[in-house]
Design brief:
This protein has 147 residues and is α+β, with helices and mostly antiparallel strands. 33% of the residues lie in helices and 13% in strands. The chain has one domain (8-129). The protein is built from five helices and five strands. A three-stranded antiparallel sheet has the order 4-3-5. A two-stranded antiparallel ribbon has the order 1-2. The longest helix is centred in the N-terminal third of the chain and has 23 residues, at 26-48.
Length: 147
Amino acid sequence: MGHKDGVHFCDCCGLSLATDEVQPGSRELCHDCTMQAYGAQQWSSMLETQADFPYWMYAATKDRRTRLTHKALDGLVFRIDDPIAARFFPPWEEGCRCDAIPLMRENLEEEGLRVTDGREIPNILAKITGKPFPLPQMGPGARNPSQ
């Protein structure tokens, strides 16, 4: 968070966070852009270390505000090079507060974890929503930091 002339502002989007100027939804917007920046840096770091940490575990926030679709992915493990799973790398939707935990092969063996194929994710989420679940958007304007 920046500070200029007595006014706090978001370093990501430049939004003024002065108490008397905050518009409805602006703090959420600031949170989203901050989480996107965090996620992008995390994804970049994970790609750089994928020889040692070739997997990642989805970690949902797990509170009353967490969407059921995000809770459904909690604890699932994916390969870092899985292009479908990459679309669900946090934050993959507006307001997402989830995280990703890098894992080594040894972590999978020690903790008895199984790798989930990213192609399973739409089916897992369709069971939660009761309808086909589309893949998150890719490319410019996407919320997903893996792009």
